[in-house]
Amino acid sequence: MPERSRRIVVVAHCHLNANTKVLRLACYPGVRKEVIAPLVAGGAGIVQLPCPEASFLGMRRWGMTVEQYDTPAYRRHCRGILRTTVDTLRTLADDGCVIGTVLGVEGSPSCGVETTCGGYAGGELEGASGQDAARIPGRGVFVDELRTMLAEAGLGDVPFAGVEG
Ligand code: SF4
Q1: What is the pLDDT averaged over residues 69-87?
Q2: pLDDT of residue 130
Q3: Whose CA is nearest to atom 8 of ligand 1?
Q4: Average of pLDDT values for 65-72?
Q5: Residue 58 and residue 36: Cα distance in Å, rounded?
Q6: Ligand 1 centroid – CA 41 distance (Å)
Q7: What distance in angstroms lies between residue 91's CA and the mean position of ligand 1's atoms?
Q8: For 19-48, what is the mean pLDDT?
């Protein structure tokens, strides 16, 4: 019987499932192998976060900016879908597991760790493509709520790392 590694890596949903990404933004068909394969080879347990944008706006959503997602309702949604995951991580930590890293998605308005997407300019959708939206320093809304909830659960020292989206 092999020993359990007792090491956990937490990954953004789309690292394991590109199908939740905004149409035409996925650069791999399903699993992001260059991110996930080393985790599997190293024996880490993988906890997949829920995708907050897919469950909030569905699969007909546009690419959006952090200003558009930073609302009380979206933050409440993020906290709601994170509750079970944070409870599970707390339970695993209490059982002796090390929660190694949370792997977010850089440039995402939800899952960015060091960088997000900002620059909402308003106006009609027609002609809005690109607007002034750009990669900016900052945290995505979902990652921001996850950090807060981990701290509330006594897991505030869990490190975060961003993977290029
Ligand atoms: S970056 Fe986050 S919100 Fe965007 S598709 Fe991936 S899991 Fe969903």
Answers
A1: 98
A2: 57
A3: 51
A4: 96
A5: 25
A6: 24
A7: 25
A8: 95
89 Cβ inside 6 Å of ligand 1: no
Q: Are 63 and 22 in contact (CB under 8 A)?
A: yes
Atom of ligand 1 nearest to the CA of 22: 5
Q: How far apart are CA 11 and CA 114, in angstroms?
A: 15
8 with 89: CB under 8 angstroms? Answer: yes
pTM of the model: 0.95
Q: Are 53 and 20 in contact (CB under 8 A)?
A: yes
Distance between CA 109 and CA 90 in Å, rounded?
A: 26
Q: How far apart are alpha carbons 127 and 12 in whole angstroms?
A: 31
Amino acid, res. 151: A
Residue 11 Cβ inside 6 Å of ligand 1? The answer reads: no
Beta strand extents in 16-120 (DSSP E only): 45-48, 98-106, 115-118
Q: Which atom of ligand 1 is nearest to the CA of 20?
A: 5
Ligand 1 centroid from CA 164, angstroms: 12
Q: Bridge-partner residues for 162, per DSSP?
A: 104
